[in-house]
# Entry
Amino acid sequence: MTDRPHLAVIGAGPAGLAATLAAAAHGVRVTLIDAAPEAGGQFYRQPASDLGARRPEALHHQWRTWERLRDGMRKHADFVRHLTDHHVWLVERGPRAGFTLRALLGPEQTDPAEVHADAVLLATGGYEKVLPFPGWTLPGVLTAGGAQAMLKGSLAVSGRTAVVAGTGPLLLPVATGLAAAGVEVAALVESADPLGFVRRSRALLAEPAKVVEGAGYAARLLRHRVPTLARHTVVEAHGTERLEAVTVAALDRAGRTRPGTGRRIPCDTLAVGHGMLPHTDLAETLGCRLDGVAVHVDAEQRTDVPGVWAAGETTGIGGAVLSLAEGHIAGRSAAARLHGTEPDPRAWAAAARTRTRLRAFFAALDGVYAPPAHWTSLITDDTVVCRCEEVTGGAVREAVEELGAGDARTVKLLTRAGMGWCQGRVCGPAVAGLAGCALTPSRRPFARPVPLGVLARAGEADGDA
# Structure
């Protein structure tokens, strides 16, 4: 089988799994590489086997799709090698052909590994956009996706009374999931204006399955008696040792908090999220073109770097179904071209139609689920913006207003905001917002911090991991 063309797929979420199965079904040897201990990504995250979950499907609304993907991996086991706990930090193009993928192994990420492949498919997903506010560093405050990951992966919750806040479709499954797990959800605080849905009703109604899905979440919120505060935002989180309450306030049409509308809600958990951003680190190291903050791809999901495909959230946030469609197209295209043949788009016509519809749908949603226009006004001068380097909002404002910084990179040089372990992934949107500039990806030589010893030994490994 070693004489078959070899495709490396990075990321075992919906896009990566769909691409792996499509390529393997058409005679390509696939190495599926993922940082997690199990396949599925965030969307299909499974409880640890030691927990003995009796009904893990209760945490998912697309469980049958996951079962088909899981069974497909077993069916194509002869063509697919799945490497877990592999944190890819660099993808290098060979001097003539092929690629070398360099990874760190296990939770400690100290031991190196290499994978060599003829082509690469990036399905690296996305991560949450974090917008700080006073008190957001208190224990008990976590991202909406973090709350969902905790529930799915460990069947645990961080407290008994929760507020779910921010903006975006992720808040709905998080609120309903916590309520179903026995948490009292004191409020769902959504900053979006309901009139935004009315203005975009034509685009939204073109995807009725998504509308029905949203209506199902709304019905569950009613069943659990979760109050919904539309066009509201969290102003501050309160507590000493940990979170004790949050203050929320109504927003006016311009996106400013309305004076006199603040209300204090007791809670011990705040799950807050403001949308997602694509993971583009590896694409950047390869020199792939970006469209804004997402990887640019053509109709076959090819990047502008020969031999590199991309699919799923890394090409733009759009949910699991869109990721599955893009992954299928990318896998079929990669298989054909690795065999030296011209792909026939008719082979993935259904997936292409799904991709077109869902891209239009999520473009409409993006217009509705935008953070409040004046969210930076909530960041006080003593609010920590960069947690890694403990840089405050006041320090960032000083860099902009007094030292003349006009972009995030200059702010970073003057304040160290973004120089920590997360490399600006968490504080990047806040720094850009305070600096009054667009959020742009930071070009880095590596996708994650790498021990110097690993760098010194890079290239010494014999063969694949």
